[in-house]
Amino acid sequence: MIRKGSRLAAVVLCVCIAVGLTGCKQKVGDKCSSIGKFACTDTASAMLCNAGTLVTLPCRGPHGCQGTGTASQCDDDLALEGDYCQTTLNENWSCSTDHKKELLCKDGKFQVARACKGPKSCQIQGNTIECDDSMADVGDVCVEEPGDSNYGCSLDKQIEVVCKNGKFQPSNSCRGLKGCSISSNTVTCDQSMAREGELCRPVDNYSCTADAKQMLKCAATMKWAKEKDCKKNGCKVKGHEVSCD
Fold first, then answer.
1. CA–CA–CA angle 56, 85, 168 (5° rounding)
2. What's the distance, CA 193 to chain centroid?
3. How far apart are CA 86 and CA 50, in angstroms?
4. What is the pLDDT of residue 90?
5. Which of 30, 60, 97, 239 is least enclosed by beta carbons within 10 angstroms?
6. What residue segments make up the domains of the chain, in order of their start?
């Protein structure tokens, strides 16, 4: 569940953007010809030639913006969604400033690649971004790994989620006392209690309602359905066995 997104060095050596401009008079909004080049304007930002216009390039990483002219270095390891960014790199990844999102530079601006709501959040390890998406809300942006399903737990630990079509979706309900839990790279879902109509898997699995009055079965529709009433001693779960009297 923890994917290491590769990225090139966040601190990039750049060429001065002064080409074609008038020295010190250049400012944000001016036209420029050196597309993709930038130079520091202060310790936390630079001026970037983006699509023929000078824009502010935030350098929110711990090293900020250092150097002048061709020696300018901008640390964009941390960024905000919508920040202008360098697109000359094959892959330019960053963590959001609150470390809850992994960002990717696309079409000249940082966009959310996936949510990182797991306990390790989003971290910078050298030239690598590590995003912990082991916990997520339904609807969070996610990344599907080829040949490897991406499962996680909801923040309230009541739902097992899976990444489909770029977003986390419900996969299973985990209403048992142990809820949804994660150990290493494995998600475990306690289905010893369930609610009729909620998602379930696998088919033909059994569970009890929270009031122990009914036994439920995971139907072919992948939803819990009433199997029968338990009028005497109620519905009980022991190990992997479910009994209903």
1. 130
2. 29
3. 9
4. 60
5. 239
6. 2-132, 151-244
Asked if 47 contacts 68 with a C-beta cutoff of 8 angstroms, the reply is no
Give the distance, in angstroms, between the CA of residue 203 and the centroid of all CA atoms in the same chain: 30
Two tokens, residue 66:
């250092």
Cα angle: 71, vertex 26, 55; to 5 degrees: 75
* 173: its two tokens: 């309900």
Domain over 151-244 is classified CATH 2.30.130.50 = yes
CATH number corresponding to 2-132: 2.30.130.50
pLDDT value of position 240: 82
Q: Which among 138, 209, 212 is positioned nearest to 168, based on CA atoms? A: 138
Rg (CA), the chain: 25
Task: Give 24's DSSP letter.
Answer: G
pLDDT tens for 3-16 read 444 333 333 333 33
- Distance between CA 44 and CA 61 in Å, rounded? 8
Instruction: Quote the pTM value.
Output: 0.78
Burial of 80 (0-12, 13-18, 19+ CB in 10 A): middle
The end-to-end CA distance of the chain, in Å, is 41
**184-211 burial by CB neighbour count: b if 16+ within 10 A, else e?**
eeebebbbbbbeeebbbeeeebbbbbee
Question: What are the pLDDT digits (tens) for 128-174?
Answer: 899 999 999 999 999 887 777 899 999 999 999 999 999 999 999 99
